[in-house]
Predict the structure.
Amino acid sequence: MTELTRWTAAALAQAIHTREVTAVAVTRAHLDRIAAVDGPVHAFLHVDAGGALAAAARVDAALDDDEAPASPLAGVPLALKDVFTTADMPTTCGSRTLRGWQPPYDATVVGRLREAGVVILGKTNMDEFAMGSSTENSGYGPTHNPWDLDRIPGGSGGGASASLAAFEAPLAIGTDTGGSIRQPSSVTGTVGVKPTYGGVSRYGLVAFSSSLDQGGPCARTVLDAALLHEIIGGHDPLDSTSIDAPVPPVAEAARQGSSGDLHGVRVGVVTQFSGEGYQPGVLRAFEAAVEQLTALGAEVVEVSCPSFDYALPAYYLIAPSECSSNLARFDGMRYGLREGDDGSRSAEEVMARTRDAGFGAEVKRRIMIGTYALSSGYYDAYYGQAQKVRTLIRRDFEAAFERVDVLVSPTTPTTAFRIGERVDDPLAMYLADLCTIPANLAGNAALSVPCGLSEEDGMPVGLQVMSPTQADHRGYRLAAAYEAARDAAAGESLINAVPQLEVATR
Amino acid sequence: MTRTAALMSYEDVLGRFEPVLGLEVHVELSTATKMFCGCANRFGAEPNTLVCPTCLGLPGSLPVLNRAAVESVMRIGLALNCLIAPWCRFARKNYFYPDMPKNFQISQYDEPIAFDGSLVVALDDGSEFTVGIERVHMEEDTGKSLHRGSSTGRIHGSDHSLLDYNRAGVPLMEIVTKPVPGAGHRAPEVARCYVTALRDLLRALHVSDVRMDQGSLRCDANVSLTPRGASAFGTRTETKNVNSLRSVERAVRHEMQRQAEVLAGGGTVIQETRHFDEASWTTMAGRRKETSEDYRYFPEPDLVPIAPSQQWIEDLRTTLPELPWQRRARAQADWGLSDAELRDLVNAGALELIAATVDAGAPPSEARSWWVSYLTQQANTRDVELAELPVTPAQLARLIEMVTEGALTTTLARQVVDGVLAGEGEPDEVVAARGLAVVSDDSELQAAVDEALAAQPEVAEKIRGGKTAAAGAVVGAVMKATGGKADAKRVHELVLARCRP
């Protein structure tokens, strides 16, 4: 038997539910792995060993009582991005301004995980308030990519993706505002899904950009992601933007897809996402994946979405605008950091000092951009124009989905870059989300599935699959089919190519 | 300390300028829960006990719109003859203040739910003045700051502040008038009567407590002066902290006189927010901001648009009760009142009470008489509003019924009312407990009549001589002797029978 930490979530769940292994043993194996490798990886900001073991013990106790498993993933451990509120763990959003903040309530996603018997190991590192593509903007130091510790694990959800690639957890929850699930998945050789906007409740997800933020599942296989998707998805009366409709049948689609047949599926290759700025190895891996899809029976055509060229600038007006308002509450008056309150200063001065000390440079940059873009006299030229671009992008998607069932592209133009390489060049950093942003602006579903290694650097490449709104299952079917063919061709799963990490001796 | 600004005489103001009003009224809705969360919407609870992650604006929390609040505002819009927007959104109004948990207020900006209506206002002489309604929109209230360590309770000079978020997220509605020109010398009265009419309307709709003293109805008065002969409106000021109906009138009047003095002296009126001082009846400039506030409004992304169906609107229209002006017109016709009589009833705050008493079965003339005379005296004695007296229209209707049946005399009935006001229970209980039933037993009355006639032989002689009007004196004596419990009509009959020639 291989180590439990290398199993898929589906396999772990089956072993736990058939009493081959206890949930406590599975959780302990992952906690041991975290203790052994998280020093150099730094995926976690907080590990709750006691809480995780207690949750696992409850799952075992229920199974001992011959109760049916609370969900298909009951007993399986999970790493939670530190942007969801937890009543029993701090929630920092990677920001110094929330150091040690203990929320009084669970996010809806967290409540659903607990009810499903999923074991939450701890909270993972992220770019501060989910702003970034490398986790270098975390107030608590960067996370390192398990494929190459000198490289970034993507961002903002780099802690979640790294925890999967380091075998510290088989499942993770991320959030995706402009690519924060998909881009980290892509650069760590893992699977990450941004569901349709409104498909997963945002209640308890600390907002970066409310109209774009979407929580979603992360895993090492498409089926695992689908099983997790079904647990966290669905209507929530506490989130007005939550869709009041059943969760699309994503697990069924993943199982159907794994048979490997894509006959009758029409796939559109987005012509805008190619050419200058794309790493040759990324493009070659992507092209090989498209050939594989054709070989599986899919009908592949090129589709032009001209408005996608304006997605990045539109995003960098809308997201900062909303963030400038969402982050106004971090003023030191009620919770979190308070700076300069020595009795000599007014509330206004304490607020200003707190915000100066608590926020990092990227967060400040975006608050200032957003404040400017919403100012009277500039609103129409910036925020208003960006919203028009958003409408055009939505129309491009609608037109494309009349011709094809799904759209594909590379998830991100390059493989994982080196830590420090882009920190002084925000625009270069922003380009990492070039291909992922359109789906956030339009609200439709999109995912990233690993599609091989780039020949220049041996780092993983991601295939992005975009589906229409509320048709998340289409992406799962295609991704599962591709994943099965990829592994069949290689003789093993791509993730097994991750180098062994130095294990700390205890 | 405060230098009182020079004022132009009111007559001179009107000779040279035409005042233009604009009134913004904020109303706290009396919904069971807050605007965007399930916390109770209640005044006077212990600080920070009616709060949750959403109304505290904790990270991750989200608003969910209160349907009852939306329906209240739509009903108000309909009662004000407004159009209801087929599609509208909330917006965020961004500014920093410690009592605002999110540092933005969820409000409506350029897409109000109701707009373009009017309110017909009854003035003191019974004439009517129509005020145009620009818009009615929804928003959430902020928390409350209590500044400590200064003698005045104001932020200036205080050393710390306490925050109470119970009010944060309470549903608020703002009703904004169109500019109101043409009121002339009656502008201050129009302002007061407009707020009165609005208060009565909201009370009839049961959507708010409309207590100006508790802040559930707050008025900001905008005033500008247009020089006679000019067409463009002058620069306006906005006066806040106007906490009673009288203050609305006084604030407008003061601001007209102050602005006129500034303009007459060659100065310019500064567009600013001013505060009304209840003690001096004057307005004072607030802290002047160096830059104008930019609220950076944008559509609230955490809420979905409101798109009321025509069916929903029409259903709400059918829930509108008889509105104050409809009730006034009906009362005048049904009860045969003159304009002056109607005006007096309205001014006394008696109309609703009389109507309710009539609805409970009393004849209109009796109901009116009780409320405007004896009960008005009682209210004045106790220094409360008529409606605040602890007697209900139903109780009064029962009392009138007993008088009509002859079970009580008017004098006894007043004693019964006194009992009810003193908290002794229902009218029937007071009658029983105080032993106030009318004496109509003939043998008992006959003895009293004979006694009275014997005491006044000269009067008895007059009656026998045909001067029946003199019987009143004997009846009075009998009533006095029986402590008012006698049936006066029966006593009169017995006196005449005894003195038959």
